[in-house]
Amino acid sequence: MATIFDVAKLAHVSKSTVSRVVNGDVRVKPETRQAVEEAIKELQYSPSYFAKGIRTGQTNTIALLVPEYSNMFYGEMFNGVEDTAINEGYMVMVCNTGNVISEKDYIQKLMKRKIDGMIYNTYEVKPGIIRYLKQISEEIPVVFMDEIIGTRENVSSVYTDGYFSMINGVRYLKNTGCCKIGYIRNEDSIQATESRFQGFKKGLEECGLTFSPEFVYQCPVEKETNYIKAGMRAGDYFADMKENRPDALMAAIDLLAMGCVNQLKSRGIVIPDEISVMGYDNISLGELTQPPLTTIGQPIRKMGQIAARMLIDQIRTGEQEKTKKIFEGELVIRQTTRPVMK
Amino acid sequence: MATIFDVAKLAHVSKSTVSRVVNGDVRVKPETRQAVEEAIKELQYSPSYFAKGIRTGQTNTIALLVPEYSNMFYGEMFNGVEDTAINEGYMVMVCNTGNVISEKDYIQKLMKRKIDGMIYNTYEVKPGIIRYLKQISEEIPVVFMDEIIGTRENVSSVYTDGYFSMINGVRYLKNTGCCKIGYIRNEDSIQATESRFQGFKKGLEECGLTFSPEFVYQCPVEKETNYIKAGMRAGDYFADMKENRPDALMAAIDLLAMGCVNQLKSRGIVIPDEISVMGYDNISLGELTQPPLTTIGQPIRKMGQIAARMLIDQIRTGEQEKTKKIFEGELVIRQTTRPVMK
DNA sequence: CTGTTAGCGCATTCAC
DNA sequence: GTGAATGCGCTAACAG
């Protein structure tokens, strides 16, 4: 591997000049620059990653921390992050927290590796970790992709507003003629989806519909939740209600909706004619179910792009100012809901 | 950040001794070692990632190259890779090839960053890239997770044997009493699933069943294939055969099987009583269809773990010898096939 | 505009 | 067993 010295020798200049050329310093005579560039090309020189790092302290690496990676949602998020990272000369280290090692241990490893910044996601907002992360963010920029943290804390964040998105969803169902709307609520321990439930209630209110507690199916807390199955149980719950049942259901997440649709169908209930169902998240599986699932989607790839953009900007400028970017869920209308009435 | 020098000063030893302690050199007097360790703890010293790298040339980072990351298959694969990587002190850089930049460009970036090894996946086997990767593997270990490359080339690889897996599948169908087994074959351009078809034919032979070309539905090449729809067309093809039709079908991939099941059902054919259907891949959607799909799955997380294990072993030992680890598909028996006959 | 010099933090001889 | 010295490849301050 050629070093800066080899290039200098070949171009008959000093190391400093080579360094200047490589780093785009203006104060280099065009002829000299060209000579150096030729030498670089000839020797296929590329600056040593380590030597550069030891001087600049930068790795041009960012980390994406996610919980439970076997989930297409995070795959798409990664794609978004990578989109902008690559274009800006960064690479991304994916970190599945809570799997083999704890979040804190992972973050410590990352800090030792001198990553330049971090995008943080979580399922469960733990105060200890938030405190730790805020402390970390004194050292390197951190962007939070989490509605709860983004709402509560003074941190840079990117998220979709579950509250308003749900209100829109309710409004849509109302427009399709539904007026007895039920809800499949996530486990109590998952706070991330709580704002959706609040939005649901607010939506009913705004539409002049009444909220009935018995129209809410609450998923029990489980060790390892199978959301599909949980959704199926919800389906049974509502199917058992016979004629007093809702004419539409909203679910905290798509998988719950999908399990529910499945079970309602096998109980002989026609979707969407008898019951409309709307999910939340727009996982790609939703297009493939029968009927394809109407849902509220987060523009997750775009969110990943923006998060990376924010992060890299902060890395480059050293700006400490916290910024937030809040998205709205997009209604993805497929066939588990009826057409809008005239 | 404390440096090795600070530790040396506090422990009243030289930098060399600290270095020895940190790197587990035996030739250190126990008392000295303890003093150093205390100093390290007190100063929260951790060796500089860069300085260490500049001397050792190692980053303790591996890369996982995948095509199209928004796919749970690769998410699970990542989890497997990460499982062992983290335990061995490595971190993993995820690289979505063919998205923003080409495979070759990505690999070049990775080489500049001095990653210690690489796990390579692809959809499409391009000779140019294979050649390039074999050249790369002279410099750093590369493990291929691809059946075609693994079979054809002298490289380290981890993959599931589609050929034998299919033979097992045929055998299973035979045991459930099926003897006229048809096949839904993938587009001609997708080589990755070709070994499955070959295995299918071999399986028939081994079971003493006859292979009839008219029992093979061949998907036409399309610009953007909708596999569900393609499977539905296959369903029509077989339904049209009336009483001469197969009593079982195997499909190159789950989506084809699912589309087919769907269409057969709507043509009034009872699954699995009249026709059994078996998929391949075990995508999670398979549990959700009606009836849930019997299929052959790849133990993808375990494959990821093994691939990382092989890679890290090669990094550590410097062993150039190529090793292969071939898995067999796991029969996931659900309800599109009949029970085994006594 | 360009060259000289001095470290960055560490591992690794080579002495002792 | 331990310490002093050297250099990995680079950037940045300084001098010209």
Secondary structure tally: strands of chain A? 12
SSE series of chain A: HHHHEHEHEHEHEHEHEHEHEEHEE
Structural class of chain A: alpha/beta
Tell me, rounded to a whole number, the average pLDDT of chain A: 93
Regarding CATH, which class of the largest domain in chain A? Alpha Beta
DSSP helix count of chain A?
13
User: Largest sheet of chain A, order of strands side by side?
Assistant: 2-1-3-4-5-11
Show unreliable segments of chain A: none
CATH architecture of the largest domain in chain A: 3-Layer(aba) Sandwich
Helix content of chain A: 40-55%
Largest binding interface between chains: A-B, 47 and 46 residues
CATH homologous superfamily identity of the largest domain in chain A: Response regulator
Q: Return the domain count of chain A.
A: 3
Strand content of chain A: 15-25%
Main beta sheet strand tally, sense and closure of chain A: 6 strands, parallel
- Name the assembly state: homodimer
- Distance from first to last alpha carbon of chain A: 71 Å
Global outline of chain A? elongated
Rg of chain A (C-alpha, Å)? 26 Å
Q: In the CATH scheme, what's the topology name of the largest domain in chain A? A: Rossmann fold
Show the helix and strand layout:
The structure is a homodimer of 342-residue chains.
Chain A: H1 4-11, H2 15-22, H3 30-43, H4 49-56, E1 61-67, H5 72-87, E2 91-97, H6 103-112, E3 117-120, H7 127-136, E4 142-144, H8 147-152, E5 156-160, H9 162-175, E6 181-185, H10 194-207, E7 216-218, H11 227-239, E8 248-251, H12 254-266, E9 276-281, E10 294-297, H13 300-317, E11 324-327, E12 330-332
Parallel strand pairs in A: 1-2, 1-3, 3-4, 4-5, 5-11, 6-7, 6-8, 8-9, 9-10
Antiparallel strand pairs in A: 10-12
Chain B binds a DNA duplex (16 and 16 nucleotides) through α2 and α4.
